[in-house]
């Protein structure tokens, strides 16, 4: 029965029998027999089958989340039974936004794997939101406001923004002494409307509304913004976790005093690690989230590395 459940999930994800048979290195008839047996056991057709397409029936759609939950709970129960038998082992799947993953998740995974030599990790760096259940992911790193869901979320850090520019740009265009002066500077902005927590807003400035800054260079890529600022194209307003190394080295200069760059209040964007309750590998997921949280620290290390910080 368990093999039939696993085959059902694989066929539902792949959308055809042939791909599942190829991955499992078995004949297509072996896959179809398992689905036939499961449908007979359940007394319901799970797939609409035709020469051109394979699609879930209404019964299949209803059964899909239950099958995932059953397999997840079974795997979690097995993992719990063997948790005390020795070091954690097996595969952990993690997804994270590309820029944050390259800068901060990979280094945390390196020390995590050194600590737990029997664990393997698949890391997927992608900027789109991944459905943990559908993609069989154990942990996702997400930045921003979390919608209501059944995911278990652990806050890793609040997002803090910094306004900065290169010494070359400041030597050419002058050093803005207040946020209002940014209206007369080239500002590196996003090509699409930013999330509410990432606008150019400063306490007590412009009635606490976003400043309508402008510039000749726009991009939705954080590394594209960073490189543009380093090359002197303008002023950048970005998360400290992106710019921290360059602020520390002096390649970028923070423009405003602390009162203008205060940490966001509650309800504004944060960095979270989320996992799906009942998902297999729950023990490894919790271990990694705890490890990542410890690596970042109560005050994120990228904020402790700012000039003048301790």
TrEMBL record:
Q: What is this protein called?
A: LysR family transcriptional regulator
Q: What organism is recorded for this protein?
A: Pelomonas baiyunensis
Q: Which InterPro entries match?
A: LysR-type_TF_proteobact-type (IPR058163), LysR_HTH_N (IPR000847), LysR_subst-bd (IPR005119), WH-like_DNA-bd_sf (IPR036388), WH_DNA-bd_sf (IPR036390)
**Mind listing the UniProt keywords for this protein, alphabetically?**
DNA-binding, Transcription, Transcription regulation
Q: Which family does it belong to?
A: Belongs to the LysR transcriptional regulatory family.
The family database entries (SUPFAM superfamilies) matched by this protein are listed as:
Periplasmic binding protein-like II, Winged helix' DNA-binding domain
Q: HTH lysR-type domain spans which residues?
A: 1-57
Q: Where on the tree of life does the source sit, at the highest rank? A: Bacteria
């Amino acid at each position: 029965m368990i093999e039939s459940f696993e085959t059902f999930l694989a066929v539902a994800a792949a959308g055809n029998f042939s791909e599942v048979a190829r991955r499992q290195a078995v004949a297509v008839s072996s896959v179809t027999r398992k689905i036939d047996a499961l449908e007979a056991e359940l007394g319901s057709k799970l797939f609409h089958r035709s020469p051109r397409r394979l699609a879930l029936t209404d019964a299949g759609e209803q059964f899909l989340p239950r099958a995932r939950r059953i397999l997840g709970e079974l795997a979690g129960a097995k993992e719990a039974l063997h948790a005390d038998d020795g070091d954690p082992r097996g595969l952990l799947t993690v997804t994270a936004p590309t820029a944050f993953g390259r800068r901060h998740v990979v280094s945390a995974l390196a020390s995590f794997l050194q600590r737990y030599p029997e664990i393997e990790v698949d890391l997927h760096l992608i900027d789109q939101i991944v459905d943990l259940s559908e993609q069989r992911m154990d942990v996702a790193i997400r930045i921003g406001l979390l919608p209501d869901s059944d995911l278990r979320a652990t806050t890793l850090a609040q997002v803090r923004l910094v306004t900065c520019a290169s010494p070359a740009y400041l030597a050419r265009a002058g050093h803005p002494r207040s946020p209002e002066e940014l209206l007369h500077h080239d500002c590196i902005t996003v090509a699409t409307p930013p999330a509410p927590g990432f606008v150019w807003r400063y306490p007590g400035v412009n009635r606490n509304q976003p400043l309508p800054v402008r510039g000749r260079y726009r991009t939705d890529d954080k590394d594209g913004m960073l490189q543009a600022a380093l090359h002197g194209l303008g002023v950048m307003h970005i998360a400290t976790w992106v710019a921290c190394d360059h602020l520390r080295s002096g390649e970028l200069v923070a423009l405003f005093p602390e009162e203008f760059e205060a940490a966001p209040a509650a309800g504004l964007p944060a960095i979270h690690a989320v996992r799906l309750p009942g998902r297999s590998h729950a023990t490894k997921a919790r271990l990694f989230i705890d490890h990542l949280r410890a690596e970042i620290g109560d005050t994120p290390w990228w904020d402790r590395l700012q000039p003048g910080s301790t």
